[in-house]
Amino acid sequence: MSGRREVLLAAGGSLLLALVMTWPLVLNLGDAIPRDLGDPLAQSWKVAWAGHALISQPLDYFQANQFYPERDSFAFGDMLIGYAPFGLFTDGSRDAVTRYDLVFIFAYAMAFFGAYVLARELGVGPAGAAVAGAAFAFAPLRLEHDGHMQVISTGGIPLALGLAVRGVRLRRPWVLLGAWAVAAWQVSIGFALGLPFAYALAGGIAIAALVWWRRGRPPVERGMLVAGAAGALLFTVVTALIAAPHIRIADRHPEAIRTPEVVESFSEGPRALTVASPENAVWGPLTEGAREDLVNIAEKALFPGLLILALAAIGLGSSVLPRWLRLSLAAAAVGFAILSFGFRVDDGLLWPYRWLYELLPGWEGIRTPGRLFTFTTLALALLAAAGAESLLAALRRRLGEEPPPEREASPESAAGSRAGPGRAAVLTAVLAAALALAVVVEGRGLPFDPFDDQPQPALVHPAVSTADVPDPQLHLPAGRDKDNRRYVLWSTDGYPRIVNGRASTTPEETIELIGRIKPFPSPASVAELRALGVRSVVLHTNRLGGTPWDDSAAVPVEGLGLRRSERPGLVIFELEPAPLAAGEDG
Question: What's this model's pTM, rounded to 2 decimal places?
Answer without folding.
Answer: 0.91
